[in-house]
């Protein structure tokens, strides 16, 4: 298998890479692995090299949604099946990949929005929200923004006063939060598209003399150990889980595809949500 990874931008990604590498070993799959450092051109180069090497299966997590048709057509011409993991492509030709294995990001955004709606259900005051977006053009950034918006659409007291990308990194989240606190010092809530950006935002809030989780509420997505720790300490108020443990299912799918068996076109990951109390309970057994 040739696997073209997005990069190493977050705790989630590190756990995802480990899951894929460990599962390949366990399944006896020879893995050729590349890290694209969040650049689409690097992923395209890696996929082309896997085509040249005539691997049995190509798997990748597309850094952004658009611009894959040419290289996916090259894989198709070479008769190499492609499995999308974690992130989708926006190609209208579904014959370019065998299956897409990963989360429902729209649903994750909805869960975050529904928690916000519930949290402020007894208040009629305006709620000023700052959104820290994931990588521009990526499926999770697009879908998590959409799901969140849908969940809050019915109530005009919720206003997204600022929305900027932090590129799914802790440093990006911190930088964006610093700027947002200057332009909008009266923000009530931050919705960060992943834990790492939420953790960066916490650093910026603390440096500005604000108490994260109290002065400004925070909801994030992922539920990696560092995020869950901040949740258990009350610095984050709610986390929507996005599971990075895709390796075992990926190896299973790859072996079926190689054996000529059919697989479902969409394989959905099961996920939950966490309150601070639930984070305290889950943390001792959290593996990533
Ligand atoms: O595509 C999944 C997202 O990418 C995760 O939420 C984020 O942490 C990662 O970088």
Would you write up a description of this structure?
With 288 residues, the protein is an alpha/beta fold. The chain folds into 2 domains: 2-102 and 244-269, Response regulator (Rossmann fold), CATH 3.40.50.2300; 105-242, Rossmann fold, CATH 3.40.50. It is 42% helix and 18% strand. It is built from 10 helices and 12 strands. It has helices at residues 11-27, 40-52, 69-77, 105-119, 139-152, 170-183, 195-207, 225-232, 247-258, 276-282, and strands at residues 2-5, 32-35, 58-60, 82-85, 99-102, 127-133, 158-165, 189-192, 217-222, 238-241, 266-268, 273-274. The strands form 2 sheets. It has a 6-stranded parallel β-sheet with strand order 2-1-3-4-5-11, with helices on both faces. Strands 7-6-8-9-10-12 form a 6-stranded mixed β-sheet, sandwiched between helices. Helix 7 links the parallel strand 8 and strand 9 (217-222). It is elongated and about 60 Å long. The two termini are 24 Å apart. The mean pLDDT is 98. Bound molecules: alpha-L-arabinofuranose. Keywords: Signal, Sugar transport, Transport. This is ABC-type sugar transport system substrate-binding protein. It holds the Pfam family Peripla_BP_4. Its main location: other. It comes from Microlunatus capsulatus.
């Amino acid at each position: 298998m040739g696997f073209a990874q997005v990069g190493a931008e977050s705790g989630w990604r590190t756990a995802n890479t480990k899951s894929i590498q460990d599962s390949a070993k366990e399944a006896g799959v020879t893995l050729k692995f590349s890290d694209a450092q969040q650049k689409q051109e690097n992923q395209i180069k890696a996929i082309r090299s896997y085509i040249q090497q005539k691997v049995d299966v190509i798997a990748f997590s597309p850094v952004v949604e658009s611009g894959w048709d040419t290289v996916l057509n090259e894989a198709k011409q070479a008769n190499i099946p492609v499995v999308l993991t974690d992130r989708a492509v926006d190609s209208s030709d579904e014959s370019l990949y065998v299956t897409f294995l990963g989360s429902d990001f729209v649903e994750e955004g909805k869960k975050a929005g529904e928690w916000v709606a519930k949290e402020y259900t007894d208040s009629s005051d305006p709620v000023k929200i700052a959104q820290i977006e994931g990588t521009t053009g990526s499926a999770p950034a697009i879908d998590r923004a959409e799901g969140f918006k849908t969940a809050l659409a019915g109530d005009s007291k919720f206003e997204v006063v600022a929305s900027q990308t932090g590129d799914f990194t802790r440093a990006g989240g911190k930088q964006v939060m610093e700027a947002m606190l200057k332009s909008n010092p009266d923000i009530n809530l931050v919705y960060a598209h992943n834990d790492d950006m939420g953790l960066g935002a916490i650093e910026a809030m603390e440096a500005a003399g604000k108490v994260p989780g109290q002065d400004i509420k925070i909801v994030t997505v992922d539920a990696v150990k560092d995020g869950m720790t901040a949740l258990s300490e009350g610095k984050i108020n709610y986390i929507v889980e996005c599971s990075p443990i895709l390796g075992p299912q990926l190896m299973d799918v790859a072996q079926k595809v190689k054996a000529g068996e059919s697989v479902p076109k969409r394989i959905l990951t099961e996920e939950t949500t966490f309150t601070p109390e639930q984070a305290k309970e889950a943390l001792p057994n959290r593996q990533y």
